[in-house]
């Protein structure tokens, strides 16, 4: 059985203006924070692994620590551009990186692995993009149109009902893409 691996980004805990900037359906900052924690914990158990692709919190360090202590799972942080408060509590994270190349066992693939590039920002091309490597990103809050010819997806909460999404869900989204390998031998 595959480990439960989830991806997410752009929670912006403690950031009142994100409600109007991203047209989030919350009446108040408190409601947003509570709902984001609830939706996270409905999907994530303590044994699960979560890759958070940045912009966890814009609240003060004590507030951010209090939020992080309420979230289930082993959290790996891929730094975004609003990470000051989260970085004051490094022991909450299994790892903290600017960028990560993740390999997941995937029996459906010829080599038995799926490689995934994790970065806060969307890229037009990335290591292995021409070989079926995926890229997951946040930052844009759903404002970038999806490129159906690229194996990349915005995993930010604004795109996924304010919830982390599982590896299996990402895999299903990737299967809908129209991407084809650019260097296919001609017959």
From TrEMBL:
<dbReference type="Pfam" id="PF12850">
    <property type="entry name" value="Metallophos_2"/>
</dbReference>
<feature type="domain" description="Calcineurin-like phosphoesterase">
    <location>
        <begin position="33"/>
        <end position="144"/>
    </location>
</feature>
<dbReference type="InterPro" id="IPR029052">
    <property type="entry name" value="Metallo-depent_PP-like"/>
</dbReference>
<comment type="similarity">
    <text>Belongs to the metallophosphoesterase superfamily. YfcE family.</text>
</comment>
<protein>
    <submittedName>
        <fullName>Phosphoesterase</fullName>
    </submittedName>
</protein>
<dbReference type="InterPro" id="IPR024654">
    <property type="entry name" value="Calcineurin-like_PHP_lpxH"/>
</dbReference>
């Amino acid at each position: 059985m595959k480990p439960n691996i989830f991806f997410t980004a752009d929670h912006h805990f403690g950031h009142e203006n994100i409600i109007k900037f991203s047209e989030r359906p919350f009446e108040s900052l408190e409601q947003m924070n509570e709902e984001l924690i609830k939706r996270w914990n409905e999907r994530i158990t303590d044994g699960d692994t979560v890759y958070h692709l940045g912009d966890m919190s814009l609240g003060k360090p004590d507030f951010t620590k209090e939020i992080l202590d309420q979230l289930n799972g082993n959290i790996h942080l891929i730094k975004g551009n609003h990470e000051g408060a989260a970085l004051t509590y490094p022991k909450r994270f299994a790892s903290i990186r600017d960028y990560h190349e993740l390999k997941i066992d995937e029996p459906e693939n010829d080599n038995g692995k799926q490689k995934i590039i994790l970065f806060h920002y969307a890229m037009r091309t990335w290591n292995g993009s021409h070989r079926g490597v995926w890229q997951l990103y946040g930052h844009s809050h759903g404002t970038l149109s999806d490129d159906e010819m690229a194996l990349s997806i915005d995993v930010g909460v604004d795109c996924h009902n304010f919830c982390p999404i599982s590896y299996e869900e990402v895999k299903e989204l990737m299967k809908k893409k129209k991407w084809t390998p650019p260097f296919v031998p001609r017959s």
